[in-house]
Amino acid sequence: MGIGKVFKDDNTAPINSMDFCGDGTLLITASDDESIHLYNINSGDSQKQLYSKKYGVDLIRFTHHNDAIICASKNQWDESLRYLSLHDNRYLRYFKGHRNKVVSLSMSPVNDTFMSGSLDDTIRLWDLRTNVCQGIIRRNGRPSLSYDPEGIILATAVSGNSIKLYDVRNFDKGPFSNFIVHHPQPVEWTGMKFSNDDGSVHVWRTLTGEEIAVWGGHHSKVGCVQWNPKLMMAASACSTLSFWIPSINES
């Protein structure tokens, strides 16, 4: 892979989160400079720029509509989640309930529900059609969570190297599976995602540090990486956003 295009001047602070839309044609980014940028993948251009000066913006995620997103606040006084229309930069709904910083957000791939995990030791289930919380899972520690591609299983991970799997339809009955990730030190999860392929999972052995590729080019710490769900490309970001595409070997 090689860098196909770089956007150097769009952000004045690190990009903290980004997401591809379901059909892979758009990428949305959120930055610590309180800006939201929308990029067209087919043309490789910046398409729209919005700001969230009052709340800040973090954990940005597309809904099932390319002109609407959900996101978390990034300030010291508000922990609400927001449903934002990109068409007219208008908040459609607020989701209040968390009492500490929201650190994980996952949109269901099949309907209008989504999950949020917070440092208040709760995971909450929401529905875009109402601001009333639909359910709560209580777990101690920093939670990371993800829906599976069918929207049936919810995976949660917290400190202690433990991953628990829930049936979304019966999450109130507790996890149906629990397993431990063996690692020499306790793990603090910062993100997790189901593999959306034929079921294979590639693992890098932490004890040997074996690697298959190194992508260089960023001038500071890379804070987030996303693969396009439809195209052979990826995006990575510090305060600079880079698109990665297969390089052509001319030899």
Description:
The chain has strands spanning 2-7, 15-20, 26-31, 35-40, 45-51, 58-62, 68-72, 81-85, 90-95, 102-107, 113-118, 122-127, 130-138, 144-147, 153-158, 162-167, 177-180, 224-227, 234-237, 241-245. It is 0% helix and 45% strand. It is mainly beta and 251 residues long. It has a domain at 99-199: TolB, C-terminal domain (Neuraminidase, 6 Propeller). The protein is globular and about 50 Å long. The chain is built from no helices and 20 strands. The model is unreliable at 199-205 (pLDDT under 50). A 4-stranded antiparallel beta sheet has the order 1-20-19-18, with no helix packed on it. It has a 4-stranded antiparallel beta sheet with strand order 2-3-4-5, with no helix packed on it.
Strand-residue proportion: 35-45%
Terminal CA distance reads 16 Å
Q: How many helices does DSSP assign?
A: 0
Helix-and-strand structural type: mainly beta
Low-confidence stretches: 199-205
- Assign an overall shape: globular
* CATH overall fold name of the domain at 99-199: Neuraminidase
Looking at the overall shape, the CATH architecture of the domain at 99-199 is 6 Propeller
Oligomer: single chain
The largest sheet has its strands arranged as 1-20-19-18
DSSP E strands, number: 20
The Cα radius of gyration reads 18 Å
For this structure, what is the CATH class of the domain at 99-199?
Answer: Mainly Beta
